[in-house]
Design brief:
Shape: globular
Number of domains: 2
Helix content: 55-70%
Structural class: mainly alpha
Radius of gyration: 21 Å
Strand content: under 5%
Largest sheet: none
Number of helices: 13
Oligomer: single chain
């Protein structure tokens, strides 16, 4: 499980002035834009998709058919993309009540989640078909990974008929649980006196962010940490040095063919957050090329990921598709030093940390 590491930062400039004096930019303004124009919209969008997913699951259970199964799967893929964009904000309300792990338990290196989901399906545990009771069970049984297995794993074809009503009821409960979490996080980000207020209004009396430096460090940390996560955990977790070293079944969402969709969502979220926060506006005039370069590379990364089609094992075996995955890795590798070293240096921040410290 990833641990959020401490940021080892030298902060030579004070309070709201981490930005050059020539730039009419305040840290609080940057954070407020990030909250209003990305975070709230991303989690509101996720909530909408989870509502559609829950409705699709209920329709499938009420009238099982290939058509309704396809509809539920389509909503699942749309929710995966929405979550992948929103999940880059992995702090604040999503961290409360273990929501982050409950929404997505991954990586599951020891197949703990898989075994628990399979056991529930085998034992037909009635309590797992109630969203409220499911919320209190293992985090591995109640999120997107569990629903993916229900919809795509061994035995999923039974969802087109009435022979396995339990499987559909369990899937509907998972979808309902996901919807509840998404709503709770959406609501929390919109509370006038909630986390958003604390992040956008740093000060001596603020328990989380004592000054503008700390608030912006949180934001910059999103870009650095998420790029590392996407490249080193999500991508390199299955993409080996060569075809013989690939591990396609270690890829996130491999059953539903949403691996590349998820990677695209992650980078799309990073790009949207970077753009709306207007962090680049705080750069000196001779360094603003960095912001444009970051945007262009992120756009290219999203397009590259979206162009990867089909099962991930077949993509890895196809030289043209594999080249796209390697190009995606190259893009994320070039972005990390650009943001983590050069951009932060322009703001007087020396980032000497890795977000992936820990096990």
């Amino acid at each position: 499980m990833l641990k959020r590491s401490a940021l080892v930062l030298a902060l030579p400039l004070a309070l709201l002035g981490i930005f050059p004096a020539s730039a009419a930019v305040k840290a609080s303004d940057v954070i407020q834009r990030a909250v209003d124009s990305f975070v709230r919209l991303a989690y509101a969008g996720l909530h909408e998709h989870t509502q559609s997913l829950a409705k699709a699951m209920h329709k499938l259970c009420e009238a099982p058919s290939q058509r309704e199964l396809d509809a539920a799967r389509a909503e699942f893929s749309a929710t995966v993309y929405a979550w992948s964009s929103a999940e880059i904000i992995g702090f604040g309300p999503i961290k409360e009540n273990n929501r982050l792990e409950r929404m997505l338990f991954w990586p599951d290196r020891k197949s703990i989640g898989l075994k628990q989901v399979q056991a529930a399906l085998s034992d037909k545990d009635a309590t797992a078909t109630d969203p409220a009771q499911l919320a209190g069970k293992s985090v591995a049984m109640q999120g997107l990974g569990a629903l993916e297995f229900v919809l795509y794993g061994d035995g999923a074809d039974a969802l087109t008929g009435k022979d396995d009503a339990y499987r559909c009821a369990y899937g509907a409960a998972i979808a309902g649980n996901i919807e509840t979490m998404a709503k709770d996080v959406d609501d929390a980000w919109n509370k006038p006196d909630g986390f958003a207020m604390l992040w956008a209004n740093p000060g001596p009396q603020n328990a989380l962010y004592r000054d503008g430096n700390e608030a912006v460090i949180e934001l910059v940390g999103v870009f650095i940490k998420e790029l590392e996560m996407v490249r080193d955990v999500r991508l390199k977790g299955f993409l080996g040095a060569g075809p013989g070293t690939d591990k396609p079944k270690q890829a996130i969402y491999w059953r539903s063919q949403n691996t590349a969709n998820s990677l695209a969502g992650n980078l799309a979220g990073i790009d949207a957050l970077f753009q709306v926060s207007k962090l680049g506006d705080a750069l000196p005039a001779d360094a603003r090329w960095m912001a444009e370069s970051i945007h262009i590379q992120l756009v290219n990364g999203v397009a590259t990921a979206k162009s990867i089609q089909g099962p991930i094992d077949k993509a890895l075996a196809d030289p043209a598709q594999r080249e796209k995955l390697e190009h995606f890795a190259l893009i994320t590798s070039s972005l990390s030093p650009l943001i983590g070293a050069r951009l932060t240096a322009e703001f007087g921040l020396t980032a000497g940390f890795s977000s992936l410290d820990g096990d």
